[in-house]
Amino acid sequence: MATRVIPPRILRKLRYNTATKPFQPALTSPALAPTSNILDQKPPSSTTTLLPPDAELNFHDVEKLFSHVPTTKLLKSTAILHATAVEPMVDLGTWMLRSDLMQTNNPLRNIAMATTRATFFDHFCAGEDAITAGKSIAGLNEAGLRGMLVYGVEDAHDNAGCDRNLKGFLHTVDVSRSLPPSSVSFVIVKITAICPMSLLERMSDLLRWQKKDPSFVLPWKQDSLPIFSESSPLYHTRKRPEPLTAEEESDLDLANKRFLELCQKCVQANIPLLVDAEHTSVQPAIDYFTYSSAIMHNKGENPIVFGTLQTYLKDAKERMLLASKAAEKMGIPMGFKLVRGAYMSSERKLAADLGYASPIHNTIKDTHKCFNDCSNYMLEKIANGPGGVVLATHNIESGKLAAAKAHELGIGKVNHKMEFAQLYGMSEALSFGLSNAGFQVSKYMPFGPVETVMPYLLRRAEENRGVLAASGFDRQLMRKELVRRVKASVL
Ligand SMILES: Cc1cc2nc3c(=O)[nH]c(=O)nc-3n(C[C@H](O)[C@H](O)[C@H](O)COP(=O)(O)OP(=O)(O)OC[C@H]3O[C@@H](n4cnc5c(N)ncnc54)[C@H](O)[C@@H]3O)c2cc1C
Fold this sequence. Notes:
Blueprint: H1 2-5, H2 8-13, H3 62-65, H4 71-85, H5 87-98, H6 109-124, H7 130-142, E1 146-151, H8 159-178, E2 184-189, H9 197-212, H10 246-269, E3 273-275, H11 283-297, E4 305-310, H12 316-330, E5 335-339, H13 344-354, H14 364-384, E6 388-392, H15 396-409, E7 418-423, H16 428-436, E8 441-447, H17 450-463, H18 465-469, H19 472-490
Parallel strand pairs: 1-2, 1-8, 2-3, 3-4, 4-5, 5-6, 6-7, 7-8
Helix pairs in contact: 4-19, 8-10, 9-11, 14-15
The chain binds flavin-adenine dinucleotide.
Flavin-adenine dinucleotide binds at residues 276-277, 308, 310, 312, 339-344, 360-361, 363-364, 366-367, 392-395, 421-423, 444, 464, 466-467, 470.
């Protein structure tokens, strides 16, 4: 591996931070009013000239691309991305971290934890506490990127777990507020961590049944936007569900209060809140929470509560159109994070087990088209009116297409209603390429104690196997830059 090939003497001599400076020095400028919405903050006029479209994304100049990445970090990242691209390595790592080895009384546990902390955790997570997360974000910010902070917790199954998780999310808003304005673009929340899973399943069943039978009354339902389209799969709910019990209604009341507290904290801090998307079995309830809260909190030009649309779903585009048109009619600015989606295998399996067609597009080409169509629609929408969009993708083609479309519409440096996003530790080339071309780019950064975040990371590693394996483009560019630095230091 590269770490063994390059002698330390040369490593010390290797240069980084060459002439290229961060594209967005203004992001940390004290001149930015701390109370203005983050998506509203603009770089100074000197940086508002748009580049010609063909210069928008440049992956050829690796020196410029990785100019903010120290050589040691570049080496470590390359090694870790290589390791995670090897499926048996991921299998071994997940087996080990789930095995008896991790029992508190096992003497090997400390070694395993220390190794995990120094490698995968360090690469894919912002840190164990607020101070380290703040430092990671400051590092990103220097390189012209921003952070989306996500408190890495798992799904909750009871109210005590939900209350604990809520504290973590509220703390995340405090951490974000304590950092330089605009260095954190969003705080992330998983509704499955603040509302018990069983209740989300029950609510989703009831919402689906109401879609089948509009006369079915849901006394707990507040104002919302359309959650289903005509083609939405309703197969999860085969018979008329019982109404919520008194206990479930009381749990729902608590979940509403938790989400309300978080939304209000984000409103006060003026930091948008992004709601993650999960399995289709619970997604209707998640959309319900998101939309009813968007109706309450999204005002003026910029949404404060954003939902997530998984474009690998066949009904994604229709649902997005219905929700955004309904929001427009109500005068509510809508914000969406567009993703392809992380639960493809489990969705396909569930549909097959129940004897239905998969809700996932039949071909990857259809998924790509859906992502790009939804992205075009949202970009056109925000170019002409209120709203916001986060394009959360590692796909180079989608990045290029969206960058070209944004350029055509005059969005980008002059309009900060759009944000690109990649997972922390992934797709550095795309992140820096987009940022160098003048777009706002965020990294999705889980943080929290290793013991809390590891189960979350393991789940993501399993779900995103394809993505980890497909980091080839990044690895290739990183290797190219490493070779260039070695040559530059030797010659
Ligand atoms: C910032 C950020 C936030 C995210 N938040 C969420 C979230 O809230 N919820 C969520 O579910 N996911 C989320 N994801 C994960 C995301 O959904 C994807 O799993 C991941 O990013 C891969 O998609 P991509 O756009 O990067 O595209 P690519 O790198 O092109 O990857 C495409 C992947 O899609 C799969 N795929 C999709 N449709 C098909 C199909 N029809 N046939 C075959 N393969 C298919 C392939 O296996 C392939 O691995 C997030 C990702 C990011 C970067």
